[in-house]
Amino acid sequence: MESFSLILAIVVVTALAFDFTNGFHDTANAMATTISTGALKPKVAVAMSAALNLVGAFLSVEVANTISKGLVDETGIRPEVIFAALVGAILWNLLTWLVGLPSSSSHALMGGLIGAAIASAGVGAVHGDVLVTKVLLPAVAAPVVAGVAALVATRLSYRMSRGADGKAAEKGYRVGQIASAGLVSLAHGTNDAQKTMGIITLALVAGGALAPDSDPPVWVILSAGLAIALGTYLGGWRIIRTMGKGLTDLEPQQGFAAQTSAATVILASSHLGFSLSTTHSVSGAVMGAGLGRKGGVVRWSTATRMFVAWGLTLPAAALVAAFAEWVCGLGDWGTALIAVALVAASFAIWRISRREVVDHTNVTAPDEPEPAGVVTAAVAAVAPPPAGVPAADGLAAAFPAQKDIAPDAPARPAATSV
Predict the structure, then answer these.
(1) Residue 266: closest CA among 364, 321, 332, 193
(2) What is the pLDDT of residue 321?
(3) Which residue(s) pair with 126 in the sheet?
(4) Smaller CB count within 10 Å for the chain: N or C?
């Protein structure tokens, strides 16, 4: 094994920084529904998720091998290419975190890797079959499968608890939700922490510090697990608020069904080596659970913004990474310039986020109610007034502004019979 070069050390540190952003960006995947239903206090939830993320990092290396050995041709990759890929992924993670959108950290990382590899070695550096079968197809299938499973599980949960005492059933589902949230956190560690392991391993191979086709060393597994756990503990409160309250309003039965369905899909994909987006899986499960309850709704305006972010993740991260790789190719000063730009942009995004602070104290605060529009007022006007309220008063309540129109207008003369 050769000694670390400066660029290799920079790549490893940047990869762990990405892993950190992955942790706070994806905390919502495991704990948003648990926090929103009141099953766990916010700080307790993120601490539990952090610990289980660390444990999950040691359970498998299949996804890490998919990234380090399968997605791109490792023989033509330089450490600068990995650095450029991480720059694209980190910036996309921070931007989507700022606006509270649960986009995929996994796809940001892979998009960055694809863009940087193409900019460095051409399209042939990307293994298209691996991209399609282990990245793109799971990206489409995961939210659908998890959503359908959560919808069915939600309906079964309500049916099974139909004759049970309401408070006892709710308490039982809250306990079950804590267990399922732990399972999602464990699954997140087995899937997402491995992505950083794969990137670091790829950089070590590219820099000559590891032999080709090597598995991630133990120190890589440990450092990746610790970085994602620390990021998880700090909590991505903005995305937790979107996932827990912005998509739909969840009851304990729905939260339990959503998390159990998502965890099953994630763990199965990790076992098969699919680089699955936990964000896609959990978001699909939350929407399925929302539709599974009678009278439940999904806020499709929020869901649409989320879908747009999903579609932009791969190409946006790829473009930024390709530009970063082009600048890094100009020499050591180019790499230094990109490093400074990354730190400056990250700090600027953090400063902007301080204008509206979201943390554990207000993450479950209800959203401001939307003002009644014309349709709402019209429906109120034609609806029968409550018992004991004269019809005229009901109409005046629906259109309060009408009471003061033309106050001095003369009274209309009574009609006379002929």
Answers:
(1) 193
(2) 94
(3) 72
(4) C
Report the pLDDT value the prediction gives residue 278, as an integer from 0 to 100. 76
Structure tokens at 133: 């079968």
DSSP labels, 148-162: HHHHHHHHHHHHHTT
Q: What is the DSSP string of 398-415?
A: HSGGGGGSSTTPPPPPPP
Q: What DSSP assignment string belongs to 323-379?
A: HHHHHHTT-HHHHHHHHHHHHHHHHHHHHHHTTS---TTTTTPPPPPPPP-HHHHHH
Q: Are 56 and 193 in contact (CB under 8 A)?
A: yes
- Cβ contacts of 346 within 8 Å, gap of 6 or more: 90, 91, 94
The pLDDT, as a whole number, for residue 401 is 45
How many residues make up the chain in this entry? 418
364 close to 35: Cβ distance less than 8 angstroms: yes
Could you tell me the two tokens for 332? 């050591």
Top mean pLDDT of 187-201, 213-227, 311-325 is at 311-325
Q: Considering just the CA atoms, what is the radius of gyration of the chain in Å?
A: 26
Per-residue pLDDT for 30 more than 50? yes
Structure-token pair, residue 313: 């993740």
Contact 116, 322 (CB under 8 A): yes
Say if residue 167's pLDDT is above 80: no
Residue 210 contacts residue 68 (beta carbons within 8 Å): no
pLDDT digits (tens, 9 = 90+) for 339-396: 999 999 999 998 998 888 877 777 666 554 444 333 334 334 444 444 444 544 444 4
For residues 253 and 164, what is the distance between their CA atoms, to the nearest angstrom?
13
